[in-house]
Amino acid sequence: MKIGVISDTHGDTLAWQKALKLFEGARFVLHSGDVLYHGVFNPILSSYNGKRLAEMLNDSPVPLIFARGNCDSDVDQLALQYPITSLVTETVIEDLSILIHHGDKFSNEELADKYKPDIIISGHTHVYGIEQYKNTIFLNPGSASLPKNPEKTPTIAVIEGEVIKILSLDAGIEIATSPLRGSSQ
């Protein structure tokens, strides 16, 4: 099983093209919000084209599952064939219970204590990370478009087999890794 994880694309078509290559062979792609709009506080990149990104997502060869981010609007939903209106999206893939949210409305701890999923995926901070909390793994894939990690590296994540990997979007190399079950590294 391979699952792609992405967040904070902010209308960046080039970021999606690069991510899709790294997601090759994935069964699903999970997106934790801020899909099309660049956001009033973010720069407008030369690869920003929200309408075109909507078309690309609608044509994705891999099924997508979304949570709504703080930059996502009702108008964005009109452009996308996938629902992006839920602040918290729950899914089960094989035997893996996953909650997806953006990270601006609820804390990971609050959701973990209430729902007890295997993984909680969030975004919003534009900084990647993998943490263990009780029996839940918190995964933030960082931002594919507007990274705020110290290296300013755009990132995505892949869940494959029993491992979670955070990958550099540009180089495709592993930046961080963690076992899917048990303590994080």
Question: If you had to describe this structure to a student in words, what would you say it looks like?
Answer:
The protein is α/β, with parallel strands linked by helices. It has one domain: Metallo-dependent phosphatases (Purple Acid Phosphatase, chain A, domain 2), CATH 3.60.21.10. The protein is about 20% helix and about 30% strand. A 6-stranded mixed sheet has the order 3-2-1-9-10-11, with no helix packed on it. The chain has a 5-stranded mixed sheet with strand order 4-5-6-8-7, covered by helices on one side. The radius of gyration is 15 Å and the shape is globular. The two termini are about 20 Å apart. About 45% of the residues are buried. The model has no long low-confidence stretch (mean pLDDT about 95).
Oligomer description: single chain
Structural class: alpha/beta
Question: Which regions are unreliable across 5 or more consecutive residues at pLDDT < 50?
Answer: none
Largest sheet: 6 strands, mixed
How many distinct domains? Answer: 1
Shape: globular
Alpha plus pi helix count: 4
- What strand line-up does the widest sheet have? 3-2-1-9-10-11
Level-1 CATH class name: Alpha Beta
Radius of gyration, in angstroms, nearest whole number? 15 Å
Based on the structure given, which CATH architecture is correct?
4-Layer Sandwich
Distance between the termini: 21 Å
**CATH H-level superfamily title:** Metallo-dependent phosphatases
